[in-house]
Amino acid sequence: MKKMSKPERSWVFYDWANSAYSIVIVTAIFPLYFKSAAAEAGIASATSTAYWGYANSIATLIVSILAPLLGTIADFRGFKKRFFTFFASLGIIFTLLLAVVPMEQWLILLGCFVLTSIGFAGANIFYDAFLVDVTSEDRMNRISANGFALGYIGSTIPFVISIGIIIMAQQEIISLSVGVASQIAFVITALWWGFFTMPMLKNVEQKYYVERVPNPVATSFKKLFVTLKNIKAYRALFLFLLAYFFYIDGVHTIFTMATAYGSDLGIGSTTLLIVLFVTQIIAAPFTVLFGKLGQKFTEKRIIMVGILIYIGICVYAYFMKSAIDFWVLAMLVGTVQGGVQALSRSYFAKLVPKESSNEFFGFYNIFGKFAAIAGPVLVGATAQITGNTNSGVFSLVILFVIGGILLLRVPDHNRLTVNEG
After folding, report:
1. Which residues contact 411 (CB under 8 A, 6 or more apart)?
2. Residue 210 in 3-state DSSP?
3. Looking at residue 289, what is its pLDDT?
4. How far is residue 98's CA from residue 18's CA, in Å, rounded to a whole number?
5. pLDDT for 94-152, tens place per residue?
6. For the stretch 20-55, what's the b/e string if a residue is b when 16 or more beta carbons lie within 10 angstroms of its beta carbon?
7. Which DSSP state fits 234?
8. Using CA atoms, how far apart are residues 241 and 248, in angstroms rounded to an integer?
9. Interhelix angle for 178-195 vs 140-170, to 10°?
10. For 214-238, how does the pLDDT look when each residue is reduced to its tens digit (9 = 90+)?
11. What value, to the nearest 5°, has the Cα angle with vertex 4 and ends 137 and 201?
């Protein structure tokens, strides 16, 4: 197997760079820091949770609205790199500011988080679209999988360092408050993200593009309108996006609500963090394995295998009773989560017209973002009606079944082209 080229390595390392943000800022440390800041300001727990939900929704909505238009503009020569740099810089700078804003200014903290989220998600649109520029079609599965695998490993390093500092502050081993220790974690995350973004900025360039026109914004609006108007010409691509909407919703929901399942089984917060860490480690090699299998048997088949495994996970979750069951569930998720995401990205990159990759990855981002809505609602409603969290997890089978059926209907061919005449 040919070694990765410099552009491929540089592209892959951005996953290593930004994955720390996902686990430190989105999942583990900042949510607790914000809750603590709001509590000190006299904000009720339910109210601060509501504000946290609003902040996430606002960031998602802004990126989802802008994604297709910005993606269409970025298809013009020279714009893709500029947009990537802007959004990555936005995310990094405001992650640093999370450590500077005083805790009593909890509303400003929340505003900074919204801007970091927009920066993170916006940069990912153009990062994903750069996949067509850095490698050939026959290597996309491997490179996409390597990115996710490195991301899982890379995210654990600053996470473990940050958790170590916070625990030492809690145990009074070091003379820092937990708040200051958390702020140090935000600085570590921002510096990690910024430093390992450098290879991407230096070595990755836009190879496929549309030549610039005098008024790119107006032209982009027209191009976007034509794409939506001629959606039948892209039937296979949008059919895949619809399938992706359903099954990726299930994937994200199982991961984001894992701590709730564990808490309901009586698992402590420290153990939950350890489970999360181990899951990340397991995900790395299995993501690479999925990439190799996708190259041998086609992405569509291996994504279907992943969907079937997720259906099995949901069934297993229905019968969960103990902490050991939760460990088994988490390990199963670790074997399949990264692989399904990596192959979905590379499969989509093969379907889209290369010179319009940014525009279509804008749609990819929208479907992925809005997919984060239905799953948690389905789990919450089912759990509330039945009074059983396990039933809530089991209900996700619906999403995987629908996603799988739609994926089977996506035509098998290497490159999607617009129908002529």
Report:
1. 236
2. strand
3. 93
4. 16
5. 999 999 999 889 999 999 999 999 999 899 989 988 998 999 888 888 899 898 898 88
6. bbebbbbbbbbbebbbbbbeeeebeeeebeebbeeb
7. G
8. 10
9. 160
10. 676 666 667 666 666 656 667 788 8
11. 90
Indicate whether 391 pLDDT > 70: yes
Tokens of 184: 């140090």
**Residue 172, both tokens:** 């009074």
Q: How far apart are CA 8 and CA 134, in angstroms?
A: 5
pLDDT at 238: 83
Hunting for tokens 């399904």 — which residue is that? 340
Contact call for residues 228 and 388 (beta carbons, < 8 A): no
Q: Which pair of tokens denotes residue 311?
A: 């259906």
Asked if residue 421 has pLDDT above 70, the reply is: no
Nearest in space to 27 (alpha carbons), one of 135, 120, 143: 120
Cβ-Cβ contacts under 8 Å for 204 (sequence gap 6 or more): 7, 10, 11, 81, 130, 133, 134
Residues 6+ apart with CB under 8 A from 194: 17, 92
- Residue 39 structure tokens: 């509590």
Q: Could you tell me which residues come within 8 angstroms of residue 309 by beta carbon, excluding any fewer than 6 positions away? A: 332, 335, 336
Mean pLDDT of the chain: 84
Distance CA 221, CA 230 (A): 14
Helix (H, G, I), strand (E, B) or coil at 417: coil
Cα 330 to its chain centre, rounded Å, is: 18
Q: How many CA atoms lie within 13 A of 196 on its CB side?
A: 24
Other Cβ atoms less than 10 A from the Cβ of 85: the count is 15
pLDDT tens readout for residues 181-195: 999 999 999 999 999
* Other Cβ atoms closer than 10 A to 345: 23
| The model's pTM | 0.79
The strand pairing partners of 76, in sequence order, are 210
pLDDT > 80? residue 273? no
Among 400, 407, 389, 382, residue whose Cα is nearest residue 333: 400
Q: Which residues pair with 210 in a beta bridge?
A: 76
Cα distance between residue 72 and residue 359, in whole Å: 4
Domains recognised in the chain with CATH numbers:
1-225 (1.20.1250.20), 230-421 (1.20.1250.20)
* 404-417 pLDDT, tens digit each: 999 999 876 544 44
